[in-house]
Amino acid sequence: MAFGVTPGADACDSPAMDIRRDPVLMSDVVNRSSSSRWRSGRGWVWRALVVCGVLAGGGLLLAAPGGDNGASIPIVSQPPERHVSVRLTEIRHGPLIQWLFAEGVVQAVRKDFLQFESAGRIELIATDANGDLLREGSRVRGPAPGDRFGQLIARLDDRDSAARVARTDAQVAAARRRVEAVRAALDQTRQAFDRTSGLANHGLTPRAEHERTKAAFLEAQAELRAAEAEARALAAQADEARIGRDRAAIFAPYDGVIAMMNIDVGDYATGIASATRDPVQEANAAVVVIEDSRLEVTLHLPPHEAALVREGQTAYVGADGDAIARAVRGAEDTGALRGRVWSVSPSISLQRRAVMVKVRLDEGTEDRLRDGAFVSVWIAAAEIPQAVLAPYPALIQRATQTTVFIHDPETDQVRRRVVRLGMMGLDHAQVLAGLSPGEQVVAEGHHRLTDGARVRPIETGAADPRRALDVTLPTDDDKQ
Predict the structure, then answer these.
(1) What is the rounded CA–CA span in Å between residue 365 and residue 316?
(2) How far apart are CA 134 and CA 137, in angstroms?
(3) What is the pLDDT of residues 124-153, one digit of tens each?
(4) pTM score over 0.70
(5) 86, 120, 190, 265: least CB-packed within 10 angstroms?
């Protein structure tokens, strides 16, 4: 029995499915459902699906060209060509800066670890202008012109040294009085010798008298030399005693601020403890004084990076790379500070196998950065005023080749092209060959592309070098 199928109608809704309304056919279905093959409670569902599928297939065959109804209906159509959505960027000229990245510790240019040079019990800690004891953060004054020492910070119990100074000072005073007395006696003997010498030349005085005055004069000269030598020796002893007294005190070496105070009145100081590393010195020092108006960062760079660093190159210092990036882009209040490379060591450290580089910050940064802070540093190692720039998202690295997808605006097709790169900037690379300014490359979406694929540009943006940190650094004239 053949069933006609109306073109476009659902096979399950065709007249062939009228078996659901034919009592004879439905009886046959019921009888078969009782067989062992359809004993499952859900067997009628599966049977209905099978019948629907068979009839639907038959309907499609009948509706095909050459069927009973002679109709010709296309069932499968060719889908339209698909365009891949991509984001493009335009290749342009612009300045390019090669940055070197490092991390280091901020230190004051002048930082002294002060200790007592002799052992003893701490007797005094000086006070500031308000009468409070000196402490961390207290400002101290260095020696004025012509002075030997700066402001007193702390002193040991120096009664013994003070007594020695007093005793030697008294001895020096007595020696100086003796020198004056001997010098007065010498003047008298000189006068007597000169008088007898004149008379002896005219034969008016005995020769023996002349010789006596001469001997007295020479003896007085010798006595004066001995007295002066003794006075000098006693003065040296007095100086030594005063040095010993000074060793029992700590003075400010320059105008600065106390960074650490490790002592208190009544503590016992053991004297100088040798140390070579700053952390150990800081822990052992009685007082740490820094000149916080000048700060620098010590870096240890690999030799191949240090070869690009020169004195005077611009550097930026900040708590992290993001803060520096915002500062380079021109943002304010990022916390990043500007400085310059101060020194580059000509040798490689044997301990670190690295080259030590020091970056000094511009003056006036002491309120924005602290001694001992761990910071990131960017150094502008090289700069190209004008270069062909390609943003990193557009570059595809495959083994030893770097390629890009070039967009043809007339056909909306992309072609893969090999490029040769030069200096690397922060967000852009210098293109030495393979690209020209004005060409458009795929910046986003190239992972879905093949050579010759058609694309649909979402947005076309310019490879703005200034927004991408490849900027021309300001000069000192620009700052002024």
Answers:
(1) 12
(2) 8
(3) 999 988 889 999 989 999 998 888 889 999
(4) no
(5) 265
